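Design review, sub-item: ligand-bound model
Attendees: FS, YL, KQ
YL presented the inputs for the D-malate complex:
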Amino acid sequence: MRKVINSLVVETSGKQSNQAIVFIHGFPFDHTMWENQVNVFKKNYYCVAYDIRGLGASYVGDAQYTMQAFVADLFSIISGLNLKNPIICGLSMGGYIALRAVELNQNIFKALILCDTKADADTDSAKLARSEKINQINVDGLEVFIDEFVPNCFCDEFIKEKSKIVFEVIAKAKSLNPLGVKGSLLAMMTRTSTSDYLKNIIIPTLAVCGSFDTLTPTTVMRNMAEQIPYCEFAVAPRAGHLAPLENPEFVNDAIGGFLKKIGVGF
Ligand code: MLT
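KQ shared the predicted structure:
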């Protein structure tokens, strides 16, 4: 069921009385990247997947976004839907949002699931690269940026075997509002590091990384996972930076197994 909360488009599936899982997508995508998870988990969970401000069908506004504002949006959805101890599951930029939300108030969450993400803030060179990307969108247009950026999110095997899906994801990314895309780059560029907080996370955590992820490689994610006291780490074979989309069977099994272990499984 589609709802609009705080000018954000929120898609809910499953019974509202079930344990909630909130899915937060990566950049530059929208909530549909979680389709393979929602279709499976909606049987037993209340699945909430939303479009981050400026992306998908959510309101763009002035595009002066910060990670802090993205987290405030997440909290507004949690209170708007009256979710009790939801599990949050974020991929890449969605993971940055989830980690900052946990740093702010982990007590409201049952568990944390991190996919293809990291806790560190952008280095100076990464910040400069973000500036270049904003400039590229201004000068050459969004399509050029997407054609360069999005294919790097997939592993070679997926591009070869599932070219139709890759094409669809690229086409959808090209239809985003360039202002919203640039605003997301600004929010990622100015975000703070959550690395120092990792050791304080007391909620159960699962970290999943695609074996061929070049944006947030397995070494980086493993290192992050090792700093979180109760964190299970899994490497998804045949996947790049979009493991839930590229290898949904593996990721769904990992999530399902984790949920059983923490006492909310089926
Ligand atoms: C994402 O997938 O959300 C982005 O690649 C994250 C980033 O650029 O840091």
